[in-house]
Design a protein that fits this description.
363 residues; mainly beta
């Protein structure tokens, strides 16, 4: 899958100051699995993010090197059996062990369905959980909730995996349950540069934020789709908690925006080239600028739509010109799971470019 890359050009005008083997049993919390004394053998691999040449590229946090634990649910339909467990890495060679056992009431040749997730968080925080229903045994209904909050340590990827295996395959044929984890979120990177038209100006950026992004949703294992929770009524958002405003960069000192040259890359709003901000896959609708003020309302519920806000200072010489304030850029796109989306904000013209088209930009 090819990388998605867009360029946005914006003006510097308009600155503004159970486990259970019984059919009738369900649970609302994870319990220790039951088994017949035969442990489940496990192996783990990863399908990486897609890079610029359509080949895989590792994120800054790769589970094969840093993931120490993941959670899984395993279910049989005939007879009905339902269990939850976790697996932990045991050594640097990526060996794994689990507290899970094969169901005691199931024929060893019967298929068992596995659903797994992992949150890659160095602090050990768990940002998702399996959903529970009246019938936890339904294969098609397996899902989990996930939230990517506004705090930087909560902007983590979600890794998911599904697998089907029998006890006979696992033990007799020595075929471990192979959890191939895939990235369920989209990865974002933002950069900033300025055009030759502003070559005589110094622009110091101190903050960049992305506003009105859906931060929570439900991932469905059956088809790998996401369901988000935004609720509109006459174009007004009714559930503000579903929105998040993500800080892409913030510093009291800021940085000077570089001129666009063949040898000088735009400034990346990340620690390094392998550092991404993860978001729930979604279609983002752009905020429509107010024709009088060109500034978003403070009430996000009354102005649904996304935008980038850049706090900056502009200086030409020591006395000729100086100003400070905010630049607002309407933002829209469709983010896909497992794909890196890179954006470059080009400062210094009255046009913005989106998907290859030049569009007049109102100051």
């Amino acid at each position: 899958m090819n990388i998605k890359q867009f360029f946005f050009i914006l003006p510097l005008l308009g600155l503004a100051a159970c486990s259970s083997d019984d059919e009738g049993s369900s649970s609302n919390s994870s319990q220790q699995p039951q088994g017949n004394g035969v442990p489940i053998m496990i192996e783990v691999s990863e399908e990486p993010l897609y890079g610029s040449e359509g080949t895989g590229t590792r994120a800054a946090i790769t589970y094969k090197e840093t993931l120490s634990k993941f959670y899984f649910r395993y279910i049989t339909e005939t007879p009905k059996s339902y269990n939850e467990a976790e697996a932990s890495r045991t050594d640097a060679n990526h060996s794994w062990e689990s507290n899970s056992m094969w169901p005691s009431n199931v024929n060893p040749s019967n298929s068992c369905y596995f659903f797994a997730y992992a949150n890659v968080d160095y602090d050990g925080n768990d940002y998702s959980k399996f959903n529970y229903s009246d019938d936890n045994y339904k294969i098609a209904d397996q899902s989990l909730d996930f939230n990517i909050d506004e705090l930087s340590n909560g902007q983590m990827d979600l890794l998911v995996s599904t697998q089907v295996c029998s006890q006979n395959e696992n033990q007799v044929d020595e075929k471990p349950v192979h959890f191939l984890f895939k990235h369920a979120c989209a990865a974002l990177q933002f950069s900033i540069s300025k055009t030759a038209a502003l070559g005589n100006f110094q622009i110091r950026v101190k903050e960049v934020k992305l506003f009105n992004i859906t931060q929570n949703g439900t991932y469905k294992f059956s088809d790998g789709s996401w369901e988000t929770f935004l609720i509109y009524d006459n174009n007004v958002v009714k559930n503000e908690d579903s929105y998040a405003d993500y800080t892409l960069y913030s510093s009291d000192d800021g940085f000077l925006v570089k001129n666009e040259t063949a040898s000088d890359a735009p400034t990346l709003l990340a620690k390094d080239a392998n550092d991404y901000m993860f978001v729930i896959p979604q279609t983002v609708t752009a905020w429509t600028p107010n024709p009088d003020t060109h500034i978003p309302t403070n009430d996000k519920l009354e102005a649904p739509g996304s935008y980038i806000r850049i706090k900056c200072e502009i200086l030409k010489g020591s006395k000729d010109y100086s100003d400070s304030g905010y630049v607002y850029l309407p933002f829209s796109d469709t983010w896909e799971k497992g794909v890196i989306h890179r954006y470059t904000v080009r400062m210094g013209t009255n046009l913005r470019k989106s998907n290859g088209e030049k569009i007049n930009f109102t100051n």
